[in-house]
Amino acid sequence: MHKDQKSLLRVAERIASHLQRLGAAHFSFELPNESWDQCQCLIRQIDLCVSRGWLHAAGLLKDRLERAIERCSDRLRNIGRQAAGYGRLAPLQSLGEIFQDLTVLADEFEGVTLDGSSQTVSITTQPIVLEEIALGSFEIRLHWDRIGERRPYEVVALSPNPAGESSDTTHPHVKGNQLCEGDGQAAIAQALRTGRLLDFFQLVSRILDTYNSSSAYVSLSEWNGSPCADCGAVLGDEDQYSCDRCGDLQCRDCLSSCVRCDALCCHSCTNYCHSCEESVCSRCERTCSRCERTFCTSCLSEIGLCEECQENHDAESLEDEDFSPTVETQTPAASAAREQDSFATPPADAVQSDRLGQTAVRP
Length: 363
Known about the structure:
- By secondary structure, the chain is α+β, with helices and mostly antiparallel strands.
- The chain is about 40% helix and about 15% strand.
- A 4-stranded antiparallel sheet has the order 1-2-5-6, with helices on one face. Strands 7-8-9 form a 3-stranded antiparallel sheet, with no helix packed on it. Strands 3-4 form a two-stranded antiparallel ribbon.
């Protein structure tokens, strides 16, 4: 027997022995706690965005929440299928069949590696390109002594092109060297527990070569950068800015400079002065105390009124002064009437004097 075949046989014997011990052990189910925690975290972030009026950011988070809930639901369904199939698993591969799978791996994949010291079997995929985004080759590394545990294998990017917003996401379905198996979870688990190694590596490589937006850690449309919170445009590191008021990630076109303090602010933190029509941030804007429109501090009077309301206020003050009674005035007609009355009816003392005079000159 060839030396390489002897090595394959020794590995096949160790794998077969491990599977036999595993078959006699209790089979347990592990709930998707990680996915559940992610859903709860996203819900808290959405509530925070809504409370602060960051509606666009809340919409983006809701899309991620829908995907996270879908992933959690998929895993629960797969666990349900595993539980239903518990006790009627396919029979274990024989030693000869496991040996045959290890032999065929070299024909199916490149870079097949057997490491007895680390108890791993590894294969290398072809370079993967999804929707014109080159992700490079991946190594699928199976720890045969961990078969029966959750995630006994790793998916490692050999020439990583990670997502712009997450350096440990090297594939839409790989985060931290862990694969989101989706609908393939039950099939992968059964292939491992029965020793069908060839089927296992084929299933994992097929998932890596496909894209499912509903179960992606990061969407391919956002792969090369993070989205602007206002317009949604994908931004590279050199095109990213943040609002000086709320901290949201923005593109340069969606930011406005405050005319008073020069702060760069997003649309939600910016208003326009109704007088000078300049952009003003939330800290520098003021409201006219009469019309309640928004103005910058320079366009309001000392008493907090805009130019129009101040003019109306001044005019009302002048009118109040003009109509206040200070000196009694008489019309010309009234004066003439009073003079005529004074000639027509002499005073009583004048009449008495006249009578006295007339009495004095009578004989």
